[in-house]
Amino acid sequence: MASRYEQTKEELRRDPRMWLITGVAGFIGSNLLEALLTLGQRVVGLDNLATGKKENLAQVKSIVGDGPWKLFQFVEADIVNPAACAKVCRGVDFVLHQAALGSVPLSMTHPLRCHESNVTGFLNLLIAAQEAKIRRFVFASSSAVYGDDPGLPKLEDRIGQPLSPYAASKLIDEIYARAFSQAFGARSVGLRYFNVFGPRQDPEGAYAAVIPKWVSALLRGEPVYINGDGETTRDFCFIQNVVQANLLAATVQDPEAVNEVYNIGIGQTTTLNNLFSIIKRLLKKRDPSIAEQEPIFRDFREGDVRHSLADISKAQRRLGYAPTHGIEEGLDLAMDWYSTHWR
Prior knowledge:
Layout: H1 4-14, E1 18-22, H2 27-38, E2 42-47, H3 54-64, H4 66-69, E3 72-76, H5 82-89, E4 94-97, H6 104-109, H7 111-131, E5 136-142, H8 165-184, E6 188-193, E7 195-197, H9 210-220, E8 225-227, E9 233-234, E10 236-238, H10 239-251, E11 260-264, E12 270-271, H11 272-286, E13 296-298, H12 313-319, H13 327-342
Parallel strand pairs: 1-2, 1-4, 2-3, 4-5, 5-6, 6-11, 7-10, 8-13
Antiparallel strand pairs: 9-12
Helix pairs in contact: 1-10, 2-3, 2-10, 5-7, 7-8, 9-11, 9-13, 11-13
């Protein structure tokens, strides 16, 4: 029997819709764009290109081809602009809201920028979607909302105190989404991403995610740094699992599944030490000449959560979410792209 996701993709092929992706030139946004264009969907993409890259869009175009690419319209604008949000929401069926200042350490040094993008921008888009009578508003939340709650695995209805402005901003988004549901009948779904990785994830800058940063460093023979003792754990989630979750959340028919938040991970935990070993082994399998090196340990990073593990049973039950890629499989698939683009 076909999975819920396979059924959803077939339904979309038969009955194409209009989608809005914010942050479309970013890592997650460009992968969503690729998936939707491959399914023959019409897409409007919004990005201010502060962190998103036109090269990501060019890569999507080269993958999907000229025909599907004609179904895409790119708008360079910022979600902090209410008029821009109103414009891109017109005629859209589904919103996949990914645009954000997505960094815990950056939010610690620039909390106001974090609030403007993640809260004011979110509210602008939520209002625009409501006024445009969007069918479904799917938005990226984060496992950071669990804050100092020590419980494992993480359950959607049990959160602690936020440990960073970024975490606070994502929790505020969830509160606004619930409030709009109660006040205006809005239909939204929040996805609490755990540690997402995959092709087109940026390895550059002080705030880059750990996987692209480490792979890039190993490829270039540069030092790899681990914050803390390496026994910090994360639930690393390959990008194709996140794409699946977004499409399922946008199209789920069960009214009980709407106006909820869901953990999106794989339900497995990996230490940073183990992650380093996996990455090094997969890289050396492709290129034995890569230098042998051990990581350099340094202080824990302020605002970071020590352990993270998703309970994905709610998403499995209500959305039909079924992760297709574990940590090793996802890294193995991503490694060819990493090796080609980051050396």
